[in-house]
Amino acid sequence: MDITILGIESSCDDTSAAVLRNNVLLSNAIASQAVHIKYGGVIPELASRAHQQNIIPVVDTALKEAGVSIEDIDAIAFTRGPGLLGSLLVGVSFTKGLAISNNIPMVEVNHLHGHILSHFIDTPEKELPHPDFPFLCLLVSGGHTQIVRVDSPLEMEIIGTTIDDAAGEAFDKCAKVMGLPYPGGPVIDKLAKEGNREAFHFSKPHISDLDYSFSGLKTSFLYTLRDMVKDDPDFVEKNKADLCASLQHTIVDILLNKLVKASKQTGIRDIAIAGGVSANSGLRNGIVEEGKKRGWRTFLPEFKFTTDNAAMIAMAGYYHYKNGEFSSLDVSPEARLGDL
Ligand code: KG4
Ligand code: ZN
Questions:
Q1: E strands, the chain, where?
Q2: H helices present in 178-214, as ranges
Q3: Nearest ligand to the C-alpha atom of residue 145
Q4: Whole-angstrom Cα distance, residue 26 to residue 5?
Q5: Per-residue pLDDT tens listing for the chain (340 residues)
Q6: CB 288 within 8 Å of CB 297
Q7: Which residues are near ligand 2, the ion (C-beta closer than 5 Å)?
């Protein structure tokens, strides 16, 4: 029997709703919030208000584009956390209202779980390649950097994580120092294409096991800029492309280094990446190159599934639904939802 899931995602600054039939995506509507650009980062209170304005039209659009009505929905999957509490609250409260008024069960989803399971979504046009279990997923977003061992859709374990900043945060903070707009990751990615990645050398962390650290790199980047700008106030402007290329190269190198170690330790060679930073061209090329050298099967998400979207929340919700895992009406959002 077909299962139709409505997914709702509101953990940060994108309001999204999607409809999934089994694992085939019927629609994925996203309203991005431009309001944060002028502040150089997400302002939580403004994000919550924008979610409130966007959520009804976004859900409406997702249902319409999918050609379904609310009566066709078997369950509503929503992001319970981690994320900004006020933003999550909008999605959770809206889901409750829609669920009560239409007598539809609710399924809570861990946002990170969603990013990883985006690898199992197919589109009506094509079946996308899916990793086999167990696989390793490098989950790189604005708030998280983790290596996750995935044993089944509902069984996964974090085997490495950042002890300070996330990779996306390193991109965004270094971009801010260079005066680039928020979010900095995609801007750096674009500028890096024109630059020489060997032009500058920034410090790399020495952290044990499979864990990451990016705060040292951020400091090293900041000091390099500060020293150079003293001698030449136009230094950043003149060297933007080289700075971006060198920074991106360093971040990708750090990410790949531990991923290679994780693959060796676990013997797992199906390797996926997920999260906003998995859109990065340096990381995508780096994973494919490394994979060729090491006999990995590599899985890169479609661009539309890299940054936050409700399709991935619906996908994770589908697996919980099949497993009979539902949420009760007293469920509350969790800003720091830990274990996957
Ligand atoms: O997964 P996501 O949309 O939101 C979180 O769950 O955090 O990730 C957002 C992060 C931001 O830090 C953004 O700069 C980064 O993903 N990002 C990129 C690229 N596109 C988005 N970083 C590097 N290169 C990109 N092309
Ligand atoms: Zn995310």
A1: 4-9, 14-21, 24-32, 75-81, 106-110, 135-140, 145-152, 155-161, 270-274, 297-299
A2: 184-192
A3: 1
A4: 10
A5: 899 999 999 998 899 999 999 999 999 999 988 887 878 788 888 999 999 999 999 999 999 999 999 999 999 999 999 999 999 999 999 999 999 999 999 999 999 999 999 999 999 988 889 999 999 999 999 999 999 999 999 999 999 999 999 999 999 999 999 999 989 999 999 999 999 999 999 999 999 999 999 999 999 999 999 999 999 999 999 999 999 999 999 999 999 999 999 999 999 999 999 999 999 999 999 999 999 999 999 999 999 999 999 999 999 999 999 999 999 999 999 998 876 6
A6: no
A7: 141, 308
In the structure, how many helices (H) and strands (E) does the chain have? 9, 10
Residue 309 carries which side chain, given as an amino acid letter? N
> Which protein residues are within 6 Å of ligand 1, measured from CB?
12, 141-143, 168, 171-172, 183-186, 189, 275-277, 279-280, 307-308
Which pTM does this prediction carry?
0.95
Phi–psi pair at 119, nearest 5 degrees: -70, -5
Nearest-atom number in ligand 1 for the CA of 166 is: 12
Which atom in ligand 1 lies closest to the alpha carbon of residue 14?
A: 3
End-to-end CA distance of the chain: 28
Residue 129 CB coordination number (10 Å): 11
Which of 15, 307, 337 to mutate for ligand 1's pocket (most ligand atoms within 8 Å of CB)? 307
What torsion, rounded to 10 degrees, do the Cα atoms 241, 246, 250, 253 define? 90
Rounded Cα distance, 177 and 179, in Å: 5
Structure tokens at 201: 């050398």
**In this structure, which ligand is nearest to the CA of 144?**
1
Q: Which residue carries 């720091």 as its tokens? A: 336
Sign of dihedral through CA atoms 299, 203, 211, 87? negative
**Counting atoms of ligand 1 from 1, which one is nearest the CA of 282?**
24
